[in-house]
Amino acid sequence: MAPELRRVVAVGVGAGDPEHMTVAAIRALNDVNVIFELKRTTADLTAAREAIVQRFVQRIPPPRVVPVHEPHRDRRASAYTQAVSDWRSARADAWEQAIGAELGAGESGAFLVWGDPSLYDSTIAVLDEIRARGRVRFDFTVVPGISSIQALTAAHRIALNRLAGAVQITTGRLLAANGWPQGATDLVVMLDGRGAYRSALTEPVDIYWGAYLGTPDELLVAGPLAEVAAEIDRLRETARERNGWIMDTYLLRSRAAE
What we know:
It is a single chain. The chain is an alpha/beta fold. The protein is built from 7 helices and 10 strands. Helices cover 36% and strands 23% of the residues. The longest helix has 23 residues. It is globular, with a radius of gyration of 20 Å. The model has no long low-confidence stretch (mean pLDDT 93).
């Protein structure tokens, strides 16, 4: 008889507010044998994960909490795609070792994922890479979470889409490199480390910007991009200096489409 497979769950825990935790996410954390605690250089994010576990895990005995030290990613590399690929492979090495060492046959473990695991996050790709290697056999499931996009639109009290309209999601890197996408009317920008919204300053667009969404440090700005870009610049730099990091998302909405 073949041994039972290990099980891994990628659990979306929301954009930052512990109240973003869904019933499914809480149940998942209480059903597993191990919670893999990803240790990163950003101490605030590690502490927030720890707080979620302490607040919502009620099972007795509780799951074992196993630290997994995350590899450093070279954010200054000129070859962006290769740098991300190398980083994901290094993550796969660390996670594979942890899953193989900590989960016995039939046991389960959870990785906590900010926002939603299916939206601009590498968790699913890393787990797929580990499974493709074939050295550690397991199955995995995904528990969706509230994304930063949902937190952004809720904070600004707007709908993501306009009547019969389409929404495009892109990255700050692509916006900066290519400018405003042809035919786009509503553009969500994620993973913007350098204020790529400035490449759209000549476009007739409004911006709905948010940083540290769902946390006590939440910052919000809305208005015509050309009028509020300088304020966003100032807030971003001040917050980055204060916290050592920044995580922001924004919606650019063309007035030409109205």
